[in-house]
Specification:
With 297 residues, this protein is α/β, with parallel strands linked by helices. It has ten helices and twelve strands.
């Protein structure tokens, strides 16, 4: 009896036939599962568009799910994609730690995983396609030093706690700022424009001598500008991403600068990497999309 139960338990771990990955090299009727942290952010809409365009070019289908910045929802979304029998997963994590269980679920049934913009802390990921967030943070700090000189008092609007982009952009910024600037205040605004506005209002009230702000993304930077304008203060703001609203704000002189990524290119490169993995080719552990500091000059 015990032996029979062990055999049955072992069989139950075997994924159903439709959920098993295709043999490497077979790229017919490929279905990509794309999980995006939020489609309420222009940056991730562009990233999604890059995936869809390249997948269409390669004759692949894409099933898209929006986590709405909810890490628990994202894990459930990915599990649903696995149940639908996707051949490869492209994941833009809301939280790099929380998504690990979903990555491991994919690993258990042999579905390859590619992460976009943010990494996963655990589980096997074939490659991370992203900009060099550490370098971008350094670029932002260097620009503030160039404009205001060493020792200027600055504030930092941090992204979602737990996201690798938050850690990396903050690390790069502090690599320079801790030596050449005075970081008087920092607080998370979860990569959100409205929260960026509210947090910036609070920071301005408590820090009358802030001369610059580095926001971990453009949405928070644009929210910060609203708060600064309402206060009548003159504060230099630097964002990160290079989304359309931010680029326009730079052109109009409202936003001093943004560390511009190429989200559509990230999506395109992720699909190309997924295609290579499905063909059995080796891909780099990290695939970098170039960054550019956009200013009015």
């Amino acid at each position: 009896m015990s032996f029979s139960l062990l055999i049955l338990a072992a069989c139950s771990l075997e994924p159903p036939e439709w959920a098993k990955p295709k043999k490497k090299g077979n790229l017919e009727n490929i279905k990509i599962g794309l999980s995006v942290s939020t489609l309420n952010n222009p940056f991730f809409v562009s990233l999604k568009n890059g995936v869809v365009k390249e997948a269409k070019k390669q004759g692949m289908d894409v099933v898209i799910v929006d986590a709405q910045n909810d890490s628990a929802k994202q894990v459930n979304d990915v599990e649903d994609l696995l149940q639908q029998g996707v051949d490869v997963l492209l994941i833009n994590p809301t939280d790099s730690a929380a998504i690990s269980t979903a990555v491991q679920s994919a690993n258990n049934i042999g579905i390859p995983v590619v992460t976009l913009d943010r990494s996963a802390d655990k589980g096997k990921v074939e490659t991370l396609v992203a900009s060099d967030n550490v370098k971008g943070g350094e670029m932002a700090a260097d620009y503030i030093v160039e404009k205001l000189g060493e020792g200027a008092k600055v504030a930092e609007l941090e992204g979602t706690p737990g996201a690798s982009a938050t850690r990396e952009r903050g690390k790069g910024f502090h690599n320079v700022a801790d030596q050449k600037l005075d970081v008087a205040a920092k607080q998370s605004a979860d990569f959100d424009r409205t929260k960026g506005l509210n947090v910036m209002e609070n920071l301005l009230q408590g820090n009358s001598d802030i001369k610059a702000v580095f926001a971990h993304n453009d949405e928070m930077a644009l929210g910060a500008i609203q708060a600064i304008n309402s206060s009548g203060r003159d504060v230099l703001v630097v964002g990160f991403d290079g989304n359309e609203d931010a680029v326009n704000a730079v052109k109009e002189g409202k936003l001093a600068a943004t560390v511009a990524q190429q989200p559509e290119l990230i999506g395109e490169l992720a699909v190309k990497a997924a295609s290579d993995v499905l063909k059995g080719k080796k891909v780099e552990e990290n695939i970098a999309a170039p960054l550019k500091l956009m200013t009015q000059e």
